[in-house]
Design brief:
CATH class of the largest domain: Mainly Beta
Order of helices and strands: HHHHHHHEEEEEEEEE
Distance between the termini: 34 Å
Radius of gyration: 19 Å
Shape: globular
Strand order of the largest sheet: 2-1-3-4-9-5-6-7-8
């Protein structure tokens, strides 16, 4: 089989093979058609949860999906393996590929690192909770991840309201401290003293809301009576595998 170079291209190859529209493919894997389009164009949002869903719904070889090696479809013997085995293999492959990609990126940047403070309190990605400002430790991150911006800090995620864009519980977020943001950006926001992470939505009429990326949760409409403040915009999410 011809090698398909990127993960997004391989996911598109699966969809094309089964002759599904993006909306139909998304419905089978639990994501939106728009997100399928973003993934296929390598704009991010792909994570182990999405890959596991694809391998559960379609007889796709996990190694091919992540690395492009081997055949796209599993053999009859491979199809009999358990979902737990598939999940373990996918997570291990994702981990290995991230090590390779991170190594390449750091090598290109001559291993230039930025020292980022990690705050002790978690960032709720579900129900807002009061955050403190105590620094737990300092993290050495590739300087390229900070995009040359100043006032960068890190926070841990709890909750699952942002999983559809790949922000998972226990992820570490790199955040640029700032008081303003643009429509569509993922922000750290304070509502009446409680902190949450959501996508900022500003309507043409100026109405502001904070939208989750999980259909189990509803958007939070911001009203004039609320003490609403933006505390930063999210630049990247970092995941640890144990």
């Amino acid at each position: 089989m011809e090698t398909v170079s990127s993960l997004g291209e391989r996911i598109k190859a699966v969809r094309d093979h089964f002759e599904l529209r993006q909306e139909e493919f998304g419905a089978k894997t639990g994501i939106s058609g728009n997100r399928v389009s973003e993934i296929e164009h390598d704009k991010g949002g792909t994570n182990a949860v999405v890959l596991i869903s694809i391998c559960r719904e379609f007889p796709v070889n996990p190694e091919w999906l992540l690395s492009g090696s081997g055949e796209m479809l599993k053999s009859d013997n491979e199809r009999s393996k358990s979902e737990t085995d598939i999940e373990q293999r996918l997570r291990m492959l994702e981990k290995n590929m991230q090590h390779v990609m991170n190594g390449r990126q750091e090598k290109k940047k001559n291993n230039s690192l930025a020292r980022v403070p990690l705050y002790r309190s978690s960032v709720p990605a579900g129900i807002p909770d009061t955050a403190t400002s105590e620094v737990e430790e300092y993290l050495d991150m590739p300087a390229s991840w900070t995009q040359g911006k100043k006032n960068i800090y890190a926070l841990k995620v709890t909750g699952d309201s942002m999983v559809d864009i790949g922000i998972m519980p226990e992820d570490i977020l790199l955040v640029e401290a700032r008081e303003t943001a643009k429509d569509g950006q993922v922000v750290i926001a304070s509502i009446n003293g409680e902190v949450t992470i959501k996508r900022l939505c500003i309507s043409p009429g100026g109405t502001v809301s904070l939208a989750p990326e999980n259909n189990r949760y509803r958007p939070i409409a911001i009203t004039p009576e609320m003490d609403f403040r933006i505390q930063g915009t999210v630049l990247a999410a970092v995941r640890h595998y144990r």
